[in-house]
Amino acid sequence: MSPVFLKLSDWRTLPLVQRLLLTALTIGLALVSSALIWDVQLDRTPYLFAWLAGVVVILCWNTPAGISAAAVSAGLIEVLVIGRSPLFSQVNGIHVTFFTASMGCATLLSWSRRKLTVEAERTLLQLRLSEQRFRIMADAAPCLIWVAGTDKLTNFFNRSWLDFTGKTMAESIQCDGMDEIHADDKQRIRAAFNRHFDARKSYEMEYRLRRHDGAYRWILERAAPLFEEDGTFSGYIGSCVDITDRKEAERSARETAHRWHSVLENMPVMLTAYDELGNRVMWNRECERVTGYHQSEMIGNPRHLELLYPDPDYRAEIIVQYPRMGQDFRDYIIRTTCKDGKERQIAWSSISGSQTIGGWSHWAVGVDVTARLEAEQKLRENEQNLRLALANAPLIVTRADRNLRYTWTYSAYGDLGREGEQQQIEIDAIIPPESRAELVALQRDTLNEVRSIQREITFRYPDGQEYIYAAAAEPVQERGAVVGVTVAMLDISERKREEAAREKTLRLAQEAQRAAEEANQLKTNFLGMISHELRTPMTSIKGFTDTLLATDVTWDATQQRDFLEIIRNDSERMMELISHLLDLSRLEAGRLPIEAQPFNLDESLDMVLLQLASVTMNHRFSADIPPDLPLVCGDARRVAQIFLNLVGNAARYSPAGSEITLNTTLEDNFVRVDVTDQGPGIPPEMRTVVFESFRQLEAPGLGKGAGLGLAICKGLVEAQDGKIWVQDRPPPGTTISFTLPLA
Question: What is the pLDDT of residues 218-262, one digit of tens each?
């Protein structure tokens, strides 16, 4: 067994007597040994061994036998040394005395050391067992445990802590456990730890600790200082519990409570509640909106009933009925005075008797039914007025539910106000089944659209009689829900006939006035056109005639011929205009001679070929009439006039050098003729107007014509059982087509 040296801690554990004896022995041995060693008359070597023996006596504390042997050896050495010393006679008594004291002290120290060693070993064993039990208990604990020394550094973490953080004991001790704390909490936790550590006080705090998977969990830490039996501070011990789930549950509970409170505060019905003492503890925003009283004026106010029910008698009646508020009830209407002085009718309902809510002795929800009660009162008054009005009015009034089952009927032709299945029989007697679809459609539209609808319904009876009714349908609502429809029908047949007669008379008068105005306008246009169309050539003819008859000027033959050509052209223009006017008047009068007979269209084209060449001299004109085209039935001379009018009109509106074509196509029993130009085109809104008399398109650079060409063409085509129209095609260019029947 290795020697065990006396430690400072062992010295402190010795009793006071043992400390004094050990101190005296040590000093005595040191003095005697020193004196003997420094005695010049003696050999120093034996004395040195004697001094060392004294040291061995002090230092060797392994076993009682060992220390006893050391003490005896030291005594014998001292006797031998003293016996050889010349100073024996002088110091014999001292050495003998010192030897005896040394032996006694050695024996006493041996007994004390033996006892101290046994107790120390027992204490050390208990300490080791206690530490082992602590470690086992700490590792088995479900919470996180740490221990810090007096230097504020953590020197122990239990298994739960190491498993939670995923670090070893060495790694955890090196970082002192602070690296795993959330950055936002670290400074706060360190400051709190130092503050409580310095004050030697227990503490409790919450923070976020990083788990081995990187997730931060909320931790509740409790720590307390450690003290020895003699009151010496030895460090801190702390335990940590994961409270993340509890924090989440608390947060969820707070959010749920907040949501429910928000729902109760903002629900569209009034909500009030009372505690067991009758104090109002709930007054939501709908209560504030309806009454005008804020929560601060109602909750906790002992005079809240006086504010809402200022009439003492009525308030006393409410107080008598107050116990009912702790039971289930529905639509208990209470007249409430609002802050602005107006009275509102509140219908309160409650199930607090069967559905209790913590903290609320009884509670109720209310709805402001003032408008509904007023509407019901007005409805009753209107129904009464309606019955009085119906008694003297020739009406048919029906009321049906949402399934269109009739529940009430009134007719000026008899009292049909009885209830039950008789209603349907009576409706069948009034409204013919053939005409009921219009009434059903009116009722359904009113129910679906929830609005008043007015229509006219025609009833056609089997005997041939027909009646027109002005029907007005109105939805019937109760508590905001549509429960039926009411239809009132008034016979307006006579009035409609009178209106129709008046409208017909008015329409005829308007048509006559419009025809007169148009005739007047046509006459004005006609006179203007005639005055222009006749005056222009007449002026030219007179001017050139006067020129030729002048005696002061001599014209050569060429000039005279040119003047005569102008006179002839203007004369032909006048003749054409007069001919057109005569043809138009004959067409309108139905007296234009049409000699209908089979002919070939080539014949009509040949009649006006030279004239067509003259009017299209500035254009590229072509005509395509197949040689195998069947004969048509009509007047060849009038068809030639149509060709000339259409081609001339195309040349008038087409730019110089453009192409004008005349094509024919066989269609069923008709031949269609198409005259196409490359002019600006005719707008869609003018394609029927251009065939009217004195109507023409305005084009830049063109003089104002008579507007008779297309009107005459239309009359001539229709007089030969054909049709004429402007083809629908995008501009530029226009195609005018007409048909003639086959022979």
Answer: 999 999 998 987 888 988 999 999 998 888 888 887 787 677 777
CB contact at 8 A, 209 and 217: yes
In angstroms, the CA 180 to CA 178 distance is: 5
Convert the pLDDT of each residue in 252-268 to its tens digit. 877 876 777 777 777 78
Both ends of the chain: CA-CA distance in Å?
Answer: 154
- Token digits of residue 5: 């040296």
Inform me whether the pLDDT recorded for 439 exceeds 80.
yes
- Residue 563 CA: distances (Å) to CA of 211, 457, 546: 122, 78, 11
Q: What is the helix (H) or strand (E) element at residue 587, kind and residue range?
A: helix 557-589
Cβ neighbours, 10 Å, residue 36: 22
Q: What is the mean pLDDT of residues 494-513?
A: 84
Residues ≥6 apart with Cβ < 8 Å to 149: 155, 234, 235
Q: What's phi and psi for 424, nearest 5 deg?
A: -65, -40
Confidence of residue 64 (pLDDT cuts 50, 70, 90): very low
For 105-153, write each residue's pLDDT tens digit: 555 555 555 555 555 566 556 556 666 676 777 777 778 888 888 888 8
Are 218 and 243 in contact, with CB atoms under 8 Å apart?
yes
Alpha-carbon 116 to chain mean position: 86
Angle between helices 16-37 and 88-140 (to 10 degrees): 140
Q: Residue 298 in contact with residue 281, Cβ under 8 Å?
A: no
- Say which amino acid occupies 26: T
* 724 contacts: CB under 8 Å, gap ≥ 6: 691, 713, 714, 717, 718, 736, 737, 738, 739
Q: Which residues of 432-454 are buried (b: 16+ CB within 10 A; e: fewer)?
A: eeebeebbeebbeebbeeeeebe
Distance, in Å, from the CA atom of 34 to the CA atom of 44, rounded to the nearest integer, reads 10
| pLDDT of 166 over the 80 cut | yes
SS3 570: helix
What are the strands, taking DSSP E only, across 395-527?
395-401, 406-411, 453-460, 466-478, 481-491
Rounded to 5, what percent of the chain is helix, strand, coil? 50, 20, 25
Asked if residues 271 and 264 have their Cβ atoms less than 8 Å apart, the reply is yes
How many Å apart are CA 50 and CA 37, to the nearest integer?
9
pTM (predicted TM-score)? 0.33
What contacts 583, CB < 8 A, 6 or more positions away? 592, 712, 715, 716
Neighbours of 58 (CB within 10 A): 18
Taken as a whole, the chain contains a residue count of 743
| Overall average pLDDT of the 468-478 stretch | 88
Q: Which positions ≥6 away from 488 have C-beta within 8 Å?
A: 395, 396, 397, 471, 472, 474
